[in-house]
Write a structure and sequence with these properties.
The structure holds 2 protein chains of 2 kinds. By secondary structure, chain A is α+β, with helices and mostly antiparallel strands. Chain A has helices spanning 2-25, 46-53, 68-75, 107-157, 206-226, 230-244, 319-322, 334-343, 349-362, 382-385, 417-427, 435-456, 497-501, 511-518; strands at 29-30, 58-59, 80-86, 89-96, 98-99, 168-175, 183-189, 195-202, 251-259, 264-270, 276-279, 282-285, 303-307, 313-317, 372-379, 403-411, 464-471, 475-482, 521-526, 531-538. Chain A has 3 domains: 2-131, Beta-Lactamase, CATH 3.30.450.40; 158-385, 4-Layer Sandwich (Phosphatase 2c, domain 1), CATH 3.60.40; 403-538, Heat Shock Protein 90. Chain A has 14 helices and 20 strands. In chain A, a hairpin with a 2-residue loop joins strand 11 and strand 12. By secondary structure, chain B is an alpha/beta fold. Chain B has one domain (7-122): STAS domain (Transcription Regulator spoIIAA, 2-Layer Sandwich), CATH 3.30.750. Chain B has a 5-stranded mixed beta sheet with strand order 1-2-3-4-5, sandwiched between helices. In chain B, strand 2 (16-25), helix 1 (30-41) and strand 3 form a beta-alpha-beta unit. Classes of the chains: A alpha+beta, B alpha/beta.
């Protein structure tokens, strides 16, 4: 209220008093002296209550009670005040001094003022709201600008490029959920050619997390230069952070030291996600126990050691991936990540692959819930070690690298699946799929389209089957959508051929079974009105990826 | 989208009937395939050979039709064999386990030799 009235003095007194009143009513008035436009009503000033309850024009001279505002009005020579009330709220005052003609205000004058007030109040209210929105927009813009600067500052705290280490390749990806975030990673050059790798995650997001992230990075760097063992580095960092970190905030962090010559990796973990070690024989986790940094001082951190053979790689990652939810509120999960790491050859392309998987999992409308960070470390084999075509990956890898290769609709008529197959085959020509892979994809597309035509849209030509073909470097996805969203598609068991031959089962029922066997992954998404089958071929590392025929 | 209607031709050899198939094996092929099979078994051969050399599309309904033919053949104690399948459809016959119940030959000549041998053995 105080603010609003102050604005009134600035916006109404100064202008209305001098310009509009004199013009509108031809009632030339004068005030004894310039009114203090910055004058503020005290919230408990009895004049406020009086104005709120007034039914129209108020004659100031007739008021006689203790009020600083009333005193000011009288000193300014105000004769009449017309309270401007909108929706029960006093939003301004129309003040009039004595008429220059020195005649009294007539009853007609007062009625005119009352009419004017009833029309001016809502107009003034609208003007005030517009001005308020304008100021809020400017404030938002200022905050956004500050956040943009904060983002730039935070990015300068991350490595500007990944290290070049003979026989090794590294890549990293960092995408905060907001303008700034609490995830971070770092590469630290150590004596004797060793390399320190850091990945960390501050609780919370946004600016508070970013500030703690900056502190943690500095503390870790200082500790890494002073102590040779990863456990000592975390112990020292923890003790320093405990002093400064706000209550209820902490930092999970993994610190590993690579000896590039031997392939040995010495590591300690402060409560961070366990890295996945993509071995030639499968996927393992690098385990080491330790509490997050900043919770309590004087903690010890277990140290462990492993050895990466040529062709093996490590994936360090933050929560943003594994805790992402899809529309059904399912989590991406560690298990899914582990499985994906297992089917991909690993290394730097793994990041693109995982981002594509994440995008597929969450859908296009996903609002990133948490910061997403990856660091990969790959030991090259002799065959690719000297390959000059291998380049070091830069830090930022586009998360939205999927391209739409084709998008079309078909009427739900028998036989239209052949058209779908032709369109999809044409769309994926540029991917140069091995012929066996292409044939499998064509069969899967045909079967899924047939199901959409028959079971989803019940052969109604007016209901379209929508088909979209998307490709990233790692995954080809064909999504086939019908209008059968209200139906539940049962997961059929594998067909039993003996039972079919014996007449115990229908000879049909091969569709879903074929699809599952033709592609690397099949997903079914259903909402109230649509039913979508997603067919995926992993372009690197999936089944038959080595086929060139 | 024009559908390539399945066309068949049945050739009767001693102890063997060959059904030459041309076109697509899908739901539209059911009656044609059934009629061809009936024609093929009318001379009571030991083996009926499905020649897929000129077939470029088999869908899951087509697989179901072949399962039905195989069931008919087994019921009347005949062998059902196939030839001329592409690598892709051989893979599908393997995945569906049809390959466990019928011989798959690369071409008609190989099929004829094998059928001849087995006929000689049974005489």
């Amino acid at each position: 209220m105080t603010t609003m009235l102050r604005k009134f003095w600035q916006n109404v007194i100064g202008q209305v008093e001098k310009e509009e009143l004199a013009t509108v009513s031809d009632m030339s008035v004068r005030l004894n002296r310039e009114f203090d436009a910055d004058f503020q009503f005290a919230p408990n000033d009895p004049l406020l209550v009086h104005f709120l309850n007034a039914s129209g024009t108020v004659e100031v001279e007739k008021l006689n009670f203790d009020s600083p505002a009333l005193k000011k009005l009288k000193e300014a020579g105000v004769r009449f005040v017309v309270p401007l009330i909108s929706q029960g709220e006093l939003i301004g005052l129309l003040n009039l001094g004595a008429r220059l003609s020195e005649q009294d205000y007539s009853g007609d004058d007062q009625r005119l003022l009352n009419n004017l007030a009833s029309q001016a109040a809502p107009a003034l209210r609208v003007a005030q709201l517009v001005r308020q929105r304008h100021l809020e927009a400017r404030e938002r813009e200022r905050l956004e600008q500050e956040l943009r600067v904060a983002r730039i500052i935070q990015e300068t705290l991350l490595p500007k490029e990944v290290p070049i280490v003979t026989g090794w390749r590294t890549a990293a990806y960092w995408q905060p959920a907001r303008a700034v975030g609490g995830d971070f990673y770092d590469f630290i050059d150590l004596p004797d050619g060793r390399l320190g790798l850091v990945i960390g995650d501050v609780t919370d997001k946004g600016v508070p997390a970013a500030l703690v992230m900056a502190t943690t990075r500095s503390v870790l760097r200082a500790a890494a230069e002073r102590f040779p063992a990863p456990g000592q580095v975390l112990e020292r960092s923890n003790n320093l952070l405990c002093v400064d970190i706000p209550r209820n905030m902490f930092v999970t962090c993994l610190y590993a030291i690579l000896d590039p010559t031997s392939g040995r990796i010495h590591y300690a973990n402060a409560g961070h996600n366990l890295p996945f070690w993509r071995r030639l024989s499968g996927v393992e986790e690098l385990r080491a126990t330790g509490m997050p940094l900043g919770l309590m001082p004087d903690l010890n951190y277990e140290e462990n050691e492993t050895h990466l053979a040529p062709g093996e790689s490590l994936l360090l990652y933050s929560d943003g991936l594994v805790e992402a939810h899809n529309l059904q509120r399912e989590m991406f999960s560690f298990n899914r990540l582990r499985k994906l790491v297992g089917i991909h050859p690993g290394g730097i392309r793994l990041i693109e692959f995982l981002l594509a998987e994440l995008a597929e999992f969450t859908g296009e409308e996903w609002e990133q819930e948490d910061d997403v960070t990856f660091v990969t470390l790959e030991r090259l084999t002799n065959s690719n070690h000297d390959d000059p075509s291998i380049t070091i990956e830069t830090r930022q890898i586009a998360s939205e690298d999927r391209r739409i290769l084709a998008e079309f609709q078909l009427p739900s008529e028998p036989g239209r699946e052949r058209q779908a197959v032709e369109h999809v085959a044409l769309a994926v020509t540029e991917l140069q799929l091995p012929s066996a892979r292409l044939e499998k994809l064509k069969t899967a597309v045909a079967e899924a389209t047939m199901n959409a035509i028959e079971h989803g849209n019940h052969f109604k030509p007016e209901l379209p089957v929508s088909i979209k073909v998307l490709a990233s470097e790692a995954v080809l996805t064909v999504s086939i959508t019908d209008k059968g969203g209200d139906q539940i598609i049962p997961e059929k068991d594998a067909p039993n051929l003996e039972a079919k031959l014996a007449g115990l089962q229908s000879s049909r029922g091969w569709g879903l079974f074929l699809i599952k066997n033709m592609v690397d992954e099949m997903r079914i998404n259903t909402d109230q009105s649509h039913h979508t089958v997603e067919l995926k071929l992993f372009l690197k590392g999936g089944q038959d990826a080595s086929q060139t025929t | 989208m024009p559908v390539k209607q399945l066309e068949t031709r049945v050739r009767h050899l001693p102890d063997l009937a060959i059904i030459d198939l041309q076109g697509e094996i899908d739901s539209f092929a059911e009656h044609i395939l059934d009629a061809a099979y009936s024609d093929a078994e009318s001379k009571l051969p030991n083996t009926i050979l499905l020649n897929f050399t000129k077939v470029d599309y088999i869908n899951s309904t087509g697989i179901a039709l072949i399962v039905s033919l195989l069931a008919r053949a087994r019921k009347s104690q005949r062998y059902l064999a196939v030839c001329g399948l592409s690598e892709h459809y051989i893979e599908i016959f393997r995945i569906t386990r049809l390959a466990d119940f019928m011989n798959i030959y690369p071409d008609e000549a190989k099929a004829l030799v094998d059928v001849q041998k087995s006929t000689t053995r049974t005489q």
